[in-house]
Amino acid sequence: MDAWAAVLVVLILLAGGVCGVHTLALLVRLPGTVEAGPFLSGNRPREHALSRFHARWYAVSLLFLAFDMEMIFMYPWAVVLAETGAGALVEMFAFLALLMAGVVYAWREGALRWA
Amino acid sequence: MPETPPMTPPMTPPMTPPWTPFALFGALAVLAWGAAALDAALAGGRWPGIVTGPLRGAARELVRQRRRTVMPDVPLVRAGVCALPAAAVLAAVVLPLGERPVADLSVGVVWFNAMEVCVWWALWLTGWGVNSLHPLIGGYRFVAQGLAYELPHMFALITAALGAGSLRVSEIAAAQRGLWFAVWMPVAFAVYLVSAVAMAFWGPMDRPVGSDIAGGVRAELSGPDRLVFEAGRYLLLAVAAAAAVPLFLGGGVGPALPPWLWTALKTVAVLAVLVWARHRLPGVRMDRFTRVSWLVLIPVSLLQLLVVGVVVL
Amino acid sequence: MGLSERLLRYAAGRPRPLLAGVPHGTRVRLLAEAELTRRGWPAARSPAEADLLVVCGSPGAALAEAVEVVWADMPAPRARADLPGDLPPERVTAALDGAARHLADGRAQRLDVARRTGRSGGDHGQDEDHGSGMGGPGGLEMAGRGPDRDGLALDRLCLPLGPVLPDWPAGLLVETVAQGDVVQEARVEVLGGAGEERFWDEPWLEAARGRSVTRDEAARRTAAAHLDSLGRLLAVAGWDAEASRARRLRDRLLWERAGGEIAGDVTRFTRRVRRSRTLRWMLRGLGTIGPAPGRDGRVRGGAPDGPGTTGDGSAPRGPGTAGGAPGPAGPDRGDVPGRLEGWLARTEAALRGLGDGTRLTGDEGPRGPVGGRPPAASPAAPPVSPVLSVLSVMPGLLAGAELAAARLIIASLDPDLDQAPSSREAARA
């Protein structure tokens, strides 16, 4: 079997399993739908939960993106390092050092502290 | 030291025996169930309750009445819930069951990484979609957790790939015939284990589904949705443990026993360690852990990468 | 529908109970918890997860309303065990058995479903009180905005904590306004229950009434009270294993009348908790009650000065534990790990009094003098119950805390609302 066909089989098996669970539940579950409030320790909500949420770690997410982009280069780099030699190692770690300098700066600015 | 990898034509993975997808499902199901049973046993459960517990829970969720919160986004929730086991199983297709994975992709490590990141999406959608505050907070907690664990995790994966000079998982396993990567890159292995716990939101890193926010992301799930979510959670834990075996513990290499059995034994051992960690350690909050992750885990994993890079040259 | 019934029966072999604690129901809660542990029924964290609601005590009107809300949110199959505060142990067991039978009974469950759909008509039957919010989608408003601590204009959400929440002090309601997961302001309210029982203070109250109580009994109660608090704090801190160990030790002391042999197990437990660097790292600096006099000296005066001072602090904390008993009554000064350490030390100290058959004197209960203590500022004033000084510092500590930290702070203060003046008398900030 082709590898991608095998992945497709895996997906079909999974989908079949999930659909099977839902179908079985449809057949055996007790009737009716409970219209519940969101769980607020025995209180009823006054407003919708969806809101402008204070994601206080957003500075970390920007930092993360910088590194995450860099990871795209690292995957092929890992494969060819042995062939390309020391130059590639130096270049990559110079790049990483620059990024780490950014991390240290962000840390000093308090970006890693939010509580 | 690892020899140069055999140059195979890229993006044309070798053929897969047709039984492997089924074997993968069987193996993961047994591992997930075993993890649940071991967890219950460590929590003081008794035979046979520890093995029937998940089944009784499944039976309850099947007969559950439908339950809706106020104006939920049902497609979003369902997509998030289903994405959890999907991410786990798809990440597992590149892991060798013995010698051969379901799909021996030439970019297996990248594939594993990409599938595993879908868990962010799954948890956040589930937490957001039910329109309830505790799950919403749980979803945001997991995104913060992702920002903390993901980079050390990726560096650990890259270190293994660098050691073997390949992104194909079976070749990484094969490169450890002489010496396990866990032995000569112990920092990367340790970082991987920490990140595995975090990505499976398990044990000390389970705050996104923590009891202090009433079960967090899954607080409003009931019925088949809860069943699929919980199954996905244990599957993900099993996959996180299983990935450590080809990446760091030599895959199916071992004396006397066949490769599949060695793979199974090593996976069970890693899984047992992860399950045990939940009982050994209190919860870890990201507002404290993030600093350690960025200022300790990332630098040490970079140093490990440098050491491996120098050795490989 | 044979399969449905069979699945119901099978699932009922291991229900997932959600406990609702009620003031003056401590004894029955402890009995129920011990029984649930014995049966291996793992606790649920939310009504969606639970199929068994265990109400421990007789709730007053406001608390009963909250319990009804949770009950209404539980999908069938569901069962409920109402355990009044004075229920004898064997009736607790019987009530749980009855609930499990009810869960297994397909006809009863279908009847429950039919009755429910008939009554609520499928919509939010219980939502009489969301007042002005009928305009918004789904009958709810969108969140309003307000300035936050970082100078941003962000949505403000009302996030009530309690009264029905896992690992939560019975009868406590903390109404918080949250932006994201940060508590901006908190208001504390007490939802009462029927009864007079103050389980943790009982030996001292009995002794004060002239009845003969041994120091052994008081030592047992003191250690169990602290282990109960420790169990709650460790559970909130995400350390289920040690939390259940603390609760198991508590149950052995109270119900199995464990003797001196328990000391070794307690020492192992305290050592594991003390040695956990992760726990210290996570708790450090949270909920610090400063050395300076409180903003509201009126009630804070109820808490004596820090450890090491003479006066109130020198009174023996428990019978047979004179000396080596750290910390004042009311909330301990310091942060969450400090209060955790206080409980650990007092548990160990109390255990030294096990087996002491002499008669109990004094009124120094687990949470301070059971009769309360006059405010330090005006010693002539009537005594203030320790719980009030705890509740009065709570809102100040919670403002600005992240939700996880807020829950840890509340767990570390662990007010015993059995001591509070009953029924919806607010202790506001």
UniProtKB/TrEMBL annotation, chain A:
Pfam families: Oxidored_q4. Keywords: Membrane, NAD, Quinone, Transmembrane, Transmembrane helix, Transport. Gene3D superfamilies: NADH:ubiquinone/plastoquinone oxidoreductase, chain 3. Its EC number is 7.1.1.-. The chain crosses the membrane at residues 57-81, 88-107. It catalyses: a quinone + NADH + 5 H(+)(in) = a quinol + NAD(+) + 4 H(+)(out). The keyword Transmembrane applies. It is found in: Cell membrane; Membrane. Its main location: membrane. It is a multi-pass membrane protein. NDH-1 shuttles electrons from NADH, via FMN and iron-sulfur (Fe-S) centers, to quinones in the respiratory chain. Belongs to the complex I subunit 3 family. This is NADH-quinone oxidoreductase subunit. It comes from Streptosporangium pseudovulgare.
UniProtKB/TrEMBL annotation, chain C:
Residues 132-141 have a biased composition (Gly residues). Residues 113-147, 286-339, 351-383 are annotated as: Disordered. This is Uncharacterized protein. Residues 113-131 have a biased composition (Basic and acidic residues). Residues 351-360 have a biased composition (Low complexity). It comes from Streptosporangium pseudovulgare. The lineage of its organism: Bacteria, Bacillati, Actinomycetota, Actinomycetes, Streptosporangiales.
